[in-house]
Amino acid sequence: MRSLWSRLMRPFRRENRKRRAVPADDLPKLTERPWVAHSAELAETKVSTVARRLPSLVTRSMRLAWQAGPRDTLAAVVCNLLAGVFTAFGLLATTEVLYALFAEGPTPERVREALPSLALVGLAFTLQGALQSAAGWAQSRLDPQIERAVQNRLLDLTTGVELAALDDSDFLDDLQRAETRGTMAAPLMVVYTIDVLTGLVGLTAAAGVLGVLHPALLPLLLLTAVPLCWASVRAARMGYFTQLALAASRRRRWILSDLMTNRHQAAEVRSFTVRDLLLRQYDELSSRERDVELDLALRQTLTRTAGDALQGLATVAVYAALGWLLWRGSVPLAVAGAAVLAIRTGKTSLANLVYAVNRCYENGLYFADYLHFCDGAERRLPKRQGELLAPPGRFELIRAEGVTFTYPGADSPSLRGVSVELRRGEVVALVGENGSGKTTLAKILAGLYDPEDGEVRWDGTSLWRMDPALLRERIAVIAQDHTHWPMTARHNVIMGRPDVPEAVEAAIASSGADEVIAALAHGYDTLLDRRFDGGAELSGGQWQRLAAARGFYRDEPLLICDEPSAALDARAEHALFERIRAHAAGRTVLLITHRLASVRHADRVYVLDQGKIVEQGDHASLMAAGGLYAELYGLQAEAYR
Ligand SMILES: Nc1ncnc2c1ncn2[C@@H]1O[C@H](COP(=O)(O)OP(=O)(O)OP(=O)(O)O)[C@@H](O)[C@H]1O
């Protein structure tokens, strides 16, 4: 007995809860949210706190439902309420039937007396059934509409937030919580809110009937709800805290799973024989999660069992009170019969109501996560000042002054007081060792990151005052870590812009991708993804040529080339740099490269070291200065000699 008790109580012990929250030894520490330690979040999910927040959560969910499908929302609410009204009506009519049947007089007479009420009972329950079906239909039509609305909002915000938000692990955790349970909770909130209304109408009907029959029965009926409420809320909180505690672990597991199933990593997974390591790490996380889930299932079952047992006792007390009233002659038999019916209906409505309130509470916790994410993401939409201006179609000068930038969560800035100038018609190069800040600076010049200090101006107008979407329209990028878009070759070049065949061909020819297209089975219309039937795959250099074609096709006043030739062969690289130089006529090119021979012809070179500009000038003056540039150039030249 003692050992059974000890086993049952094991999951409740503090030291065991803590042990499960400790990550596996060979994994970097996760920012876990052990549910025993987070007093702020614990406070947020207190019954009283959630009860206070529930009305606003319910209002926001109903507003969402109204926006997603006003007709279906109205139909669901009205049909459910009317169904509740007819339940009450049927109950009252049943009471009348019982009064007639238990009255004095001959049986045929009493049955005849009961017939009109019986007809009303039939009518009420038929209408109630029909209305409930209609409500169910409206609710099932509403579900996908709400789901679509919340998903769209989540994706709209996630793709709209400033880029830095996606480097912030707290934001990513919030996103994961919103994306997994949060979006699912939104339609459920609406369903259970409507169920709460229905339950309330049913309970009011039963309570009204009971109150009329005998005032002592009503508080007793309500008493039966207390254990049920307690158990449901407690179980819901346990579930929520477990989800909270597992959020970081789940994200880690998802990343591991992606590494193991993504074909881009498949070769390295095999050649580095990391399969066992990845499988073991994945299994450690999932077995830890399984333990936590099993622990939760046990604790929830114990809580619900305790609630059910207490509710059983309360029900016995209600019937005992009724029997006592009958025995003392305080209520006649007809009233007792009607009371039994009202108690049964009341209990069903109460159980439905408690269930619906509890599910509202439970889903409210997750829906609050979704709203928390949306509110947080809205605050992280690019902030701009005053009326937004369109950037100039062509500019004369882009100037960055004293730019400092630190990535979210980083200990030190990646850029410190950097100032650069880019003039129309120039090729400006950024060089420096790995991690010196070149890509970060390029992203700031393109308005992708906002500097924490300093400013970027296009023809004297600060980027703070420009419409970010229009600004990005003026910039073409040939990115270092370009995406292999799962689209046709043509769409990989035009990327959502109007398809102008001659311009596509020109961009393809400029980047040397024409040879790539010629070798494809369906030319421009070949789908570049092996995961689809008939899809083709390209080599690293072939993808890079296509990425370059994408940059040229946009033909915008600023072209940013970040390591555009890292995967190209010597001939393709030479041709690409020739093309980039030609492209600069009337436009501006910002070139980031480690191939220093390619920057010899740049109008100006900025040399970065640990986030600072340490040298600037053209090739000749930098070589003459004999600094970092000359050293790096010398090392590369030496290798060729
Ligand atoms: N998303 C990020 N989150 C946090 N830190 C980052 C992020 N991206 C870059 N960093 C850090 O910022 C610094 C500058 O990185 P950046 O990519 O700008 O260097 P780079 O000069 O372009 O390097 P490379 O020549 O290797 O491409 C590095 O120390 C890097 O660790």
Automatic annotation (TrEMBL):
UniProt keywords, alphabetically: ATP-binding, Membrane, Nucleotide-binding, Transmembrane, Transmembrane helix
Subcellular location: Cell membrane
PANTHER family: ATP-BINDING CASSETTE SUB-FAMILY B, HAEMOLYSIN SECRETION ATP-BINDING PROTEIN
Membrane topology designation: Multi-pass membrane protein
Pfam families cross-referenced by the UniProt entry: ABC_tran
A molecular-function term among this protein's GO annotations: ATP binding
Domain ABC transporter intervals: 398-635
Record PROSITE patterns: ABC_TM1F, ABC_TRANSPORTER_2
Domain ABC transmembrane type-1: 74-362
Transmembrane intervals: 73-102, 114-138, 185-210, 216-233, 309-327
InterPro entries: AAA+_ATPase, ABC1_TM_dom, ABC1_TM_sf, ABC_transporter-like_ATP-bd, P-loop_NTPase, Type_1_exporter
Name of protein: ABC transporter ATP-binding protein
